[in-house]
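Section 3.1: Structural characterization of target chains.
Under the original work plan, the team committed to producing a structural model for every single-chain target entering the pipeline before any wet-lab resources were allocated. The record below documents one such target. The sequence was received from the expression subgroup and is listed exactly as submitted; it comprises 411 residues.
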Amino acid sequence: MTGGVVWSPARIVAEAALAVTLAGLATGIGVWMDTFGAWTVLLAGAMALLAPARHALPATALILSAPLAGGWSVMASVLLVCAAWSAGRRITEPWRVAAAFGAACVLHTVPSLYQDITSGVAPVLLVTLGWNVATFLTLAVVPALVGRYRDQRRRLLDALWQNNEQLRREQAMVAREARLLERNRIAHDMHDSLGHQLALISVHAGALQVDPELTGNQREAVRILRGASVTAMAELRAAVGVLHDEAEYRGHQNEQQYQGHQRQPVGGAASVPYAPRTTAAIDGLVESSRGAGTAVSLDRSGVRRPLAPAADHEAYRIVQEGLTNAHKHAPGAPIRLALRYEPDSLVVEVTNGPLPGGAPEVPPEISGGQGLKGLRERVGRVGGMVHTGPTEDGGFRIAGMLPYGEESKAG
């Protein structure tokens, strides 16, 4: 890429064709008008070099093209239009624009004025000057303004498209979050209502079981009833816990798939298997991110030691939050995940690189940091700590320290 231009094979062929065409036509016109000579060869060579140079050196190409067009060469005038178009798009500083076009205008008028002075037609110098300035405005200033307008319009449309894509991603995430909250609410309602009724059945069955007036068969039936209610209560609690955890797990998977531009129907979430939220399930999170098209590296070091159940769960949540953060705020950036088993604690680090070029920036008002705040509170409750912050290369890092279980410390 040079001067903001991607030099694809098609671009190279087009630029070569333009240079050869301008040089060839300049030579052909010189031969046809019986003016072929050193000046014609010099003009053809200059146009062949300046045509592709207008991308990398727009101001230089404009200034050098202006005097060539001032000699009333048709092909040089075409080159001046192309150079002015590129200069209008690529020169952004106002002082550089004024300097480049001012110098080009002066050099454009010099050949004609010099010709009038040497031919002794001084009285028409003002006419020649006015005509050359008008010609320069037509051949250089107008194409530059049109080129600047089209370039700004393209940039504006690109920015609008990127913002629209960002809003679509955010809206999808908000909708998924709303569905997960509703699912969790239903799970809690099931636990509160059905659990209460099953508890009442168990209590009354237990009281009835010790009634001395019951026969042996009746007491056995009551015992079976009480056992069934206790079993149903345990199964309800397990189902509610799985429903709650699976909802969060599926929401995390759907968010990663959406950030990877793998949009799937909401009903497809049923195909996502549930995995326990411990360090043993971290590999599943990594594979899911890789499946969404993100480069994720996982490095484990040290002797693996068991964590307390709550700390094991929070280690998983640190990785989950780090991956979600990276997918949300730096889609497409590579992610480095490290699990270091230190002598007294497990250190979990999730680091993502900077936002790739062309990707849309995340508006600051959308990113409130509530997930990280909650993560710090939960990790703090199990005796650990979380540190977050930007990296030197423009990425982001989430690091957590989690203590081992008592058995591991004793060992």
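Strands lie at 296-301, 335-341, 345-352, 385-390, 396-403.
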